[in-house]
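User: Could you go from structure to sequence for me? I need the amino acid at each position, not a summary. Structure tokens:
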């Protein structure tokens, strides 16, 4: 996942069926790297007036953060034969996602470290937040205080 979002039961079924139809079960296997839907989402009925408390549970979702691996495919297979099936699934997800291999993830991590190391500006977002420059602690979110704008 390159962007955050929420996966409902239907999204899980779409991924399961999309991969299951094209997966050669004699050579490959798929691993879910996220939990089943567990977070309740409430909704009030249409046409009801304001007030009256919280609505009833409508459905359950799984929150997904950016940078999370959704499904992993392994076994006796090459990345080139698995990529089209995963791209088809990635386009249907309710958030932005991309297909990656271990090599691609290592290159991205290496690039991020190189950019951080070669940065000439001493005032990074992390430095600004940790030193409360401009009173930023008053207006940034707790999420940014923890991750410094990395995973959005």
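Assistant: Here is the amino acid at each position, in order:
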């Amino acid at each position: 996942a390159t962007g955050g979002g929420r996966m409902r039961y239907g999204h899980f079924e779409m991924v399961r069926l999309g991969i299951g139809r094209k997966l050669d079960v004699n050579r490959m296997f798929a691993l879910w790297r996220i939990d089943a839907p567990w977070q309740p989402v409430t909704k009030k009925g249409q046409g009801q007036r304001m007030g009256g408390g919280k609505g009833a549970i409508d459905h359950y979702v799984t929150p997904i953060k950016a940078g999370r691996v959704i499904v992993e495919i392994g076994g006796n297979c090459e990345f080139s034969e698995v990529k089209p099936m995963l791209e088809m699934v990635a386009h249907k997800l309710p958030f932005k996602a991309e297909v990656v291999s271990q090599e691609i993830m290592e290159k991205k991590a290496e690039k991020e470290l190189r950019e951080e190391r070669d940065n000439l500006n001493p005032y990074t977002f992390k430095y600004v937040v940790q030193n409360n420059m401009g009173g930023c602690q008053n207006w940034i979110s707790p999420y940014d205080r923890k991750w410094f704008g990395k995973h959005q």
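One structural detail worth keeping in mind: The chain has a mean pLDDT of 92.
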